[in-house]
Amino acid sequence: MEVPYTVENRPDTGLYNAKVGIWLFLASEVMLFGALFSSYILLRVGALDGHWPTELLNVPIGTVNTMVLILSSVTVVMAWASLKLNDFKKFKMYQLATVICACMFVLIKSYEYRDKFTHHDVVLADGMRVDGHLVEETDEYIILSHPVSYPAVKGIGYRPTAIKEAEHGDDHHHTEDRKIMLADIVKRTTWGPWANTYFAIYFTLTGLHALHVIAGALVIAYYWGPGSKMWKTNPEQFTNRIEVSGLFWHFVDLVWIFLFPILYLL
């Protein structure tokens, strides 16, 4: 039995089945990310003045990742347009370029995550707080590179905005590595999702988005590889499937377009 409306449009919606399905799915995705964005906004608005951290993310790296995803949006459209023009070779080329862009995005994001997981934040017995990247650790001490020191504020689990002005002074921002004895450390953590509210929402938003990028890349890679055999047997349905996967990819890109300025720039 042949499934109807895989190629021709339905009379009730004016769309073929897969396109109806992807729009319904994307509607649920909007609600999911909308709830997370709303949570971020409420947490930030509810924070005390000067206590919401800023400038803790690498803006140049985030900008490169943004450009990579924008480029992938172009290549995924060109892949679909190539099928419409009956040019299968160009489809394969653009589809592969999309997969490569997705892999680049994930690799860059993995580098960012590693950077945060190796950034240590320690509270000292003298009431000071120091954060920097871990260079060496022994049974007696740790060494942090380019550490930033500032007074520890009770209840604040990160470098607050109000302290940032002091970072430019020699007493707070050190260019040389700093050796800290373990006996002097009261508390130590890394900039992971467990560190504080800010990094918890950051990793939740970007981690969920990265999972969507990986899932979308796997689908696109499948249609570039073994799934492309359908082009010989049912080219119209195959073209529709490429369009549907492209719609999902555009949604993933659009989410990042909102994530980048909110997390990295504001």
Structural features, described:
- With 266 residues, the protein is of the alpha+beta class.
- The protein has two domains: 18-116 and 196-265, Cytochrome c oxidase, subunit III, four-helix bundle (Four Helix Bundle (Hemerythrin (Met), subunit A), Up-down Bundle), CATH 1.20.120; 120-190, SH3 type barrels (Roll).
- The protein has six helices and five strands; from the N terminus they run αααβββββααα.
- The protein has helices spanning 17-45, 59-84, 88-117, 197-224, 230-233, 235-265, and strands at 119-124, 128-137, 141-151, 178-181, 185-190.
- α1 runs antiparallel to α4, α1 packs parallel to α6 and α2 runs antiparallel to α3 (88-117).
- The chain is elongated and about 75 Å long.
- The chain starts with 16 loop residues before the first helix and ends with a helix.
- Mean pLDDT is 87; it is low at 165-171.
Which features does this protein show?
elongated; SH3 type barrels; single chain; 2 domains; Four Helix Bundle (Hemerythrin (Met), subunit A); alpha+beta; about 15% strand; about 270 residues; 5-stranded antiparallel sheet
